[in-house]
TrEMBL record:
Residues 4-54 form the Large ribosomal subunit protein uL30-like ferredoxin-like fold domain. Coiled coil: none annotated. GO terms for biological process: translation. Keywords: Ribonucleoprotein, Ribosomal protein. Belongs to the universal ribosomal protein uL30 family. GO terms for cellular component: cytosolic large ribosomal subunit. This is Large ribosomal subunit protein uL30.
Length: 59
């Protein structure tokens, strides 16, 4: 299955609890961390939810 790399570019400070939990679910919780995940609709939805704090590095 295809993978996707996601990098955290925004801080979770002053964000809602569900957005922080989404970052943790993506394997991100500190700035500039990169996580490689499987490319599934669920992961795409999580990325879309916090799209203002993450950047897709590679598809």
């Amino acid at each position: 299955m295809a993978t996707i790399k996601v990098k955290q570019t925004g801080s979770p400070i002053r964000r809602t609890k569900d957005q922080r939990a989404t970052l943790v679910g993506l394997g991100l919780n500190k700035m500039h961390r990169v996580s490689e995940l499987q490319d599934t609709p669920e992961v795409r939805g999580m990325i879309r939810k916090v799209q203002h704090m993450v950047q897709v590095v590679e598809e």
